[in-house]
Fold each of these.
Amino acid sequence: MSPTPLTAAQRRTLLTLADTFVPALPRAHDPHGFYASSGSAAGAHRVAEAFLLDLPHSEQEGVRRLLGVLGRVGLRPGLPLALREALLRGLSRLSPEAAVGIEQLRRLLLMLAYAHTEPGQANPFWRQFGYAGPTFSGGNTERDVPTLTLRGGETLEADVVVVGSGAGGGVIAGELSARGLRVVVLEAGRQYADAELGHSELWAYRHLYWRGGFTSTAEGNVSLISGQTLGGGTAVNWMNCVRPPEDLRREWAELGLDGLDSPSFGNDVDAVMTRISANDRCSELSATHERMLEGAQALGYRTRRAFRNADPTRHDPQHAGHIGFGDATGSKQSTLKTYLKDAVGRGARIVEGARAQRILIEGGQAAGLVATLGEGQETLTVRAPQLVLACGALETPALLLRSGVGGPAVGDFLRLHPCGALTGVFAEDQRNWWGPTQAALVDEFAGRREGYGYLIETAQYTTGLFAAAAAWGGARAHRDLMADHARSVTLIHLTRDRGHGRVTLGGGGEAVVNYALTDPLDRENFLHGQATVAHILEAAGAERIFSLVPGVRPWQRGESLEAFLAGLRRKPIGHGGHPVFSAHQMGTARMGRDPETSVADTRGELHALPGVWIGDASAFPSASGVNPMITCMALARRTGRFIARAAPEQNWGGSGAFTARQG
């Protein structure tokens, strides 16, 4: 049944909100019409209505109620801006629930105002930034691999079913198909051709990411983002191919993962780096990187160039900065372009839009699983004696919990590499949309205390996310900050967390994520990392430095940077204070010796359920401390060898063929 459209009064209130958060402002010198444009002129209210009607019914009703209240208390288009802002502040003070709803609508409308484009037109605010938007054309219109089209009620039979197609699942599918096993891969997301990708920030969030983009943890402390498309996170991440540190390999070997500190695992790392074409020939330095390196070198900090999984023959730095929106050029060597293509060539079959619901158990061991297709009305059964769970550290534990297996540690020990950010504004246009998103990093403080520390890295250029994440100090202050976006450089600090959160199940069987940055060392490293970013920006010549913390005045050159940082240290980390982001989720079904504190044994197989293997970053015994893709891929290759040894020889079908039957 189609959702009920907003009423005329609700639409009027939504338009008023768009023009309150992004108002048309008089400005004598406004050559690009930046200040004269408004949220409604950019179409933010219209796109917001379509977005809101896609929400679950209960959330829709909450938004409708809030819009109704705002209309009844007098929020209307003709009201002066100062009165509209005062009305919103007053209602937020009176009602915490309304405050949350108003903030969410503000972030949504800001993102839409600065990111939405009409067909054939650029966003009206982009002229101020000197930004043309994603412009690549000529991408491949053919999808990379064939996938199965199934009717509900069918049953597939195979030797191994792999749930998830990213850094873990994609590698294991490729490796096991090479050994002659019949492999079926289930992916909750969809496959897209190169030509469908890389053109829109908003489209990417809705189609390529878990739950439609940045999603808050249950208590509001961390914004999570995770890939959900064929190829998983490898299709949308920022391509930073960092080898697992030697200290990490020794740590995990001491925890029982035999061979992690040996040449054998080094061979696994080399093999995946080679297969995905990791190289440093496609790591051009953008102005953002140059400012980061200038500041770091002035302070004597250690830096290094990044390796990226890019095909040099298709790489173009003009378009490499949009990689988080999907790669239209075809240069990115994700698992879709490599291991999954290898697997399909050997007879493996892929089902997209398939969400694994529960594991089938017969005689005390795995027998397959049940998944839903499309919108969830139809089911698919896959029967296989070996199951590989690689649907990410948020969904792998949820599948185990729905199935009632895995032991007491399922969902626990969630590590997130919590990130914070600061933005520096410089004198000159940085053209920070040009060049690879991550081509270098600062690792001076990677293991600053007890093996825990942080990295300093660059972030992808965005307009919508940048606008939504910026600290809110009122419409005029926000517009002034956005006016300088062309001159801005944003750096992130990525913390290796010792503390941890947990994934549990909600009432509908969905993953619920809880995480608070409470470990004393993690808090110290987070704030130390923030200070390092500030010093790097200052040393590189920033005129002003903005934090993301609400109500904090930006630092300006000539003022005390230490006083600015002291003020930031007094703010809480998480909800209501320092915003925290995570693109790396790990550890929720970790490997180890003890079934009380780990889910899988040191090979990757569940302690108490033979035939179920953990094949993604859920298996990490602790946080990797670096971008986890290569560590995950190499660990998956190691796990794949154990699975191949465990797979009954009589099930091997050398051609890779599989059978399907109607249930």
Amino acid sequence: MIKFSKLAVSAAVCLVLTGCFEVEDKSHDEVAAALEEQNAAIQDQKTPITVFGSIVDAATDEVITDATVRLKIGGQWQGAIAVSGEFSIDNLPANTDIVVLVQSPSGAFLDRAFYGKTETVAAGQEAHQAIGKLRVSEGVEKSYAILDTENSEAVEGLKFSYSTSSSFSPNYNYGSLNNYKTESTFDSETGLYRITLPKDLPFVLTAPGDIDGDDIVDYSPENNSYWRYDSIYLQSDDALNLETLYLNESLAYQAIEFRIKMIDSLGNAFENLEIFAHDQYLGRVDVSFDAETQEHVFNYQSSSGVELLMPSFTTDEDVIFQSGRINLNWSSTRLLSVHSNGFRNNLSGTVEVVDGVHSVILQPYETSTPSSDYNRIVSSVIDENQNFSLKQFFELPVALLDNSVALSRENILSVTKGNASASDIVPLGTTKIEYLSEALTTSTTLTHNDTFLAVVPEQALPSGRYQYRVTELVNRESENRYVPNFTKLFDVPATGLVFDINDVKLDNNNGSVNGAVIVTQNTAGETAPAPYSWYGSTSLYLPTSIESLDFLEFRLVSTVNNNTVRFYDNRIRIIDSQYNNANKVHLVSLATNEDVQVVSGQGINVRTKTSLEDGLVYTYSSGGVSSYENQPGYTNTATYQYTYRVRGEDTAHEGTITLPVL
């Protein structure tokens, strides 16, 4: 659920409701007067609209005379209006998102929110919009006993919720913005959950099975018909009639013994083999050997998966057995998923754990005479908890050479201008742009019968892109060298980022700003001409601090193009959940007549004609804004509504910002 808080916006903020321009950026003082002159013109062009409808009882369809209506318009709440059945609200802005919140002063019915958008209206046209019947319902107090199937004790920590919000506009998607949900409370004395439900409206009451927020289900209903999307899922009829619900505890939190018997081709058990967990690289993790049953025992109690690794070993008869691995994880059906690799009888599937114990039998591969010098890499991971070190597990023992492993920082932007030095080969009037790499020092260790390689950087890695290369190793069994041809690219994320909406810019990348050429000469000393056209397509330029967000959306609502106002409704979703749809781009300010040589094949994205400072930024579509640049006497701006949320926070920030075209 996204909650909203008001956020004060500084430079160049304009509320859509008033249509005014406020310019506080002192670097654009000469533009302020021109913007203010447009206020009156904008007000004249924004034709208001009247919305009307009625509030009715969902059970009887009769009008309700005891109600109030509050409107949220463009992110701003208006005062409550008392209505008696039918209502009409005038002077609303056209083509604008609104929320209609219906409430009962006497508590006769439950609050309900209706989302939608006012219609587009031509200038000078008288407009009315019907939003229909807004149905509301009286509330019913409900209590539930939610009990553990094993002991009939109350299960605490669940959060039941529902929403009856609706839309009065066709195909209006309000889900991500819905802030009106009713949640349950838990009475620790009675052990009951309590919630008020609508008596006559359809709804779905849900409660996530993951109580502690670690993405692992803790409980699920004994009755599977009440289970959907990893949540308790009750349709309105079930929610109104249910009194007691029994839940099964997820196996993911039950301690189990995972027993492994390793045997040879004659059925003889191997004793005391080394087996260790993938997330503990320096030794065993509670793996013991049961001499009575001839099994290796791993005590497993985790809410996440684990990988057990068995290093290659050699018997007293000089028979070599290769490495193997076993992956354990909990499936969504609360069964244990078991997969193995490197054994003659590899396992793949889910099993039910009975009485906290599960046993498997595996037969390692024997390789007494290696068929080749090549040594397979069983697993390879980047360990972020140890300075992004490389951890590799090999099928057979290996030895290292002086040049076996290398770590480098990649994608270091190099800009060589023609007038920078007399010793380079870049001619005057030309700038060469390329990526370079930098070698970094590491320390390496081999453990677990020389089958486990750890490569640790000797210095802290700042944010950026890096690459490990394993170039040449020695197969200890054959004593011959071989080339694994292994490379691993990885990114170190930036930390401590703080997003500021005022860092967002709008630029048409034409080499000028405020009607003046930005870089007046190229590196050969030749005068840079004015742009062929002051008009062009624009892009939003966003700081790298958007990496700290998990939601970012703009909606283009209006533009001023050479003092002419136009209205839009273009939604621009840039970040949603884990996906960042913006593109990284390097900004390098150069003259428009500079010959730019970007080394091909390196995937360099660079722009050289913006008015912004050199550096790395994100860029995304402006929503279709093609415009002249903002300059004295000619106002060119775009106004956006925005919503963003910082990763890890519940509250989203929303507002309106007007950006001059730079």
